[in-house]
Here is the input.
Amino acid sequence: MTGPRVFRFLNEKGSLDAHGWDNPAKAKLWRYNQHYFDDLNAEGADSRGAWHQALITDWIAANPPGQGSGWEPYPTSLRIVNWIKWALAGNTLNEAAQHSLAVQTRWLMRRLEWHLLGNHLFSNAKALIFAGFYFDGPEAANWRKQAMAILFRELPEQILPDGGHFELSPMYHALAVEDLADIVNLMTAYGSRLSAAEQALARGCAARLPGMLRWLNIMSHPDGKISFFNDAAFGVAPENDCLHAYAARLGISVAPLAPGLTYLVDSGFARMARGSIVVLCDVGRIGPDYLPGHAHADTLSFELSLGTERVIVNSGTSEYGTSAERLRQRGTSAHSTVQVGNEDSSEVWSGFRVAQRARVYAVEANETREALILAARHDGYTRLPRGPHHSRSWQLTDTTLRVVDRLEPAAKGVARYYLPNGVIAEATSSDAGTLRLASGRVLRWYAAGATANVEDSTWHPRFGLSLPSQCLSLAFTGDLTFDLTFDPDFA
Here is the structure.
């Protein structure tokens, strides 16, 4: 909130006076954010207590039960949790708000999102368990019982053995870390009321958090922020340092990452770290077969940092919905990987749908004294006439990242390397050039077997944000070797 009745969501301003609570002139996700009530627990919320009291009163009056976007199960779930967190932090929910909170929970109880599953159903269960502890009586006990049944079922499904969230989005993974930490925190606060089953759930959530925090570290850049694989953007989930601090207050911590090659077998990602160079690679499936809504066609894409400067990225996520721009951002051409015939490696369509999916195989991960080596193949283009398999390998030494692409049988492809805002590419010939970083460092690149072009593009590190950037585009047939060299003294 930027004023008593003024908001800024997804980098877009709005107000209750101008837009009300459910104005279709605003995108669905913007309206959802109105109904989340995240600001009740945001930084500096204590100074906005009077705004929040008035906002809750206004919401109750303007949103009769069951009417409008705010009563859909997902925003209802987040709002229930936020109101209860706010109350448990020492604020007062008056009688009308207490009554509304109970009505919202009853409404949610009858509309759990079994048809969507994933993070939606988990959020439903989290809301039920928060309300189940906040209120007393047999109805509240039933909410807790339903929440327990969902969480016991979903925890082993949604949290993979390597610690990753199964939708394979670093952003949604960070949200899942917060969810589990919240549940541990809540159950610690209500420890004297826990049943044996609830105690077991609290232990199970706490036991998973170290692995989840480690996964978050692996899939983040040295700047301390998440990478952009599948739906991911800054400013939605809590920052990494906030999540680690929260976990530490609960007595949970993880050791710093070691350099070298780390392959997350269950998630299908890998991290190559040598000196100050970090390369993050996607060598896995796009997500759960039954839940690809947050998937992008980004198979075998990668991101690279030199120290705290991002050098190569995927182009990010700035919007949801069913627009042409949403579809473009999900497509292969918006990622640092290879595209064949203007097709996507996985057939993304609509806002949250995927038809045929690329399958990754032949993953190899090796570490020697001289280099870190990762290789994989996928079959996403074999649905095309004479469609090729795409294989890619990464080799990282102290001075060079070498990326080798092969299309078999030989076919025309385009390898794209997206650069964040502030990194400037120059082609000094048809197959060589430089990358100039914001710090002034200059990296040299050479593309054997390709014709290179530097194209104007956009980078989307936050929802509602499109920054001018560049893309290095390499057209090739059959085989391509790309070398990026850097100063070994810096590395």
